[in-house]
Amino acid sequence: WRRLWAIAHPHRALLLGATARLALVSAGALVVPKLAGDIVDVALDGGTLAGLLRTVGAMILIFVGIGIAAFLEAWMLGIARARIQRDMRRRFFDHLVHLSPSFYDRRQVGELLSRLISDLGAVEGPLTTQIPLGIGALLRFLGTLAVLGWLHPRLTLVALTVVPPIVALSLFVGRRVERVSTGVRDAIARSTALAQESLTGLRTVQASDAIGPLRRRYRGTVDDVYGVQRRSVFLQAIFAGGATFAGFTAFALVLGYGGALILKLELTPGELMTFLLYTFSIALSVGQLGSLYTAWRNLAGASRRMFEILATASEVA
C-alpha cells in the first residue's frame, strides 16, 4: 500500500479535491429524504400550495448544487486517472528497457506487454475511482446514521439490519476475489504472450504448416481466461445478489414497523417516507463499502504482479 500511495501522491490535490466534492454530494443527498417527507406531510395535512412549492424549490436548488459538485468530482477524477496511468506506464516501461538481456531470456515479451497494459489499468481504476467513492459512501453512511438516530432510534435499529449480512458477504467474497484476480491476470498474460510470439514468427508458422496446432493452443489459453473470468463474475454476482436482497429486506422491515407506528399515531406518513429513503441510502452506502473492499482485494492481486517486475533488478548496471 505504501507503493500504491507513492504512485497516487503526486496527484493528491486532484484526488482530495474530487473527494471533497464527493462529500458535498453526500451532504446534499442527506437533506433530500427529509424534504421529501415534508412534502408528503404538507400534502396530507392540508398545507398550502405555496408551502409545497417552497419545499420543491429548495429541493431543486439542492439538486443544482449536487449536479455542479458531481461534475467537478467526475472531471477531477478523470484527469487524475489519466495522469496516474501515464506516470505508471512511463515508470514501468523505463524499468523494462533497463533490465538485462538475461531477464528477457526467461520472460515472454507478450506477458510483459500484458502487465504493461492490463495490470496497470487494473491498478489505476481503484486508486482513482473506488477509493474516493468508498470515502463518499462512508461519509454518507455515517451522516445518514446520525440523522436516523436523531429522528427515531428504534427505526434506526431496524434499518441497520442490512449491515451485518453485507459485511459478512464482503469478507467472504473479498478473500476469494484477490486469488481469482491474480488468476485472471496470469491467464491473460499467457494468452497475450502466445499471440505476440505467434504473430512475430507468423511467416515461420505458415511455412511449417503449424497454423492448426497454433490455433488450438491459442484457443486453449483463451478458454483458460474465460474459465477464470467466470469464477470472478460468479463471485461478483454473489455479492450483488446478496447485497440487493439485504437492502430490500431492510426496506420491508422498516416499512412494516413504520406502518405499525403510523397506526399508533407515533409516526407520520411523511416521516415514514423519509425513513424509507434513508434506509435505501444506508443499503447503498454499505453495498458500496463492500464493493470497495472487494476492489481493494482485486487491486492487491493486480498490483502484486506489477510490483514483482518493478522489484526486479538488472544484473548489469
Termini separation comes to: 28 Å
Order of helices and strands: HHHHHHHHHH
Structural class of the helix and strand makeup? mainly alpha
Tell me, what's the shape? elongated
What's the short story on this structure?
The chain is mostly helical and 317 residues long. It contains 10 helices and no strands. Helix 5 packs antiparallel against helix 6 and helix 9 runs antiparallel to helix 10.
What do these coordinates show?
The protein contains 10 helices and no strands. With 317 residues, the chain is mainly alpha-helical. The mean pLDDT is 76.
Q: Main traits of this protein?
A:
single chain; 317 residues; mainly alpha; elongated
Secondary structure topology:
Blueprint: H1 2-8, H2 12-44, H3 49-97, H4 101-106, H5 109-151, H6 153-159, H7 163-200, H8 202-207, H9 211-263, H10 269-310
Helix pairs in contact: 2-3, 2-5, 2-10, 3-5, 5-6, 5-7, 5-10, 7-9, 7-10, 9-10
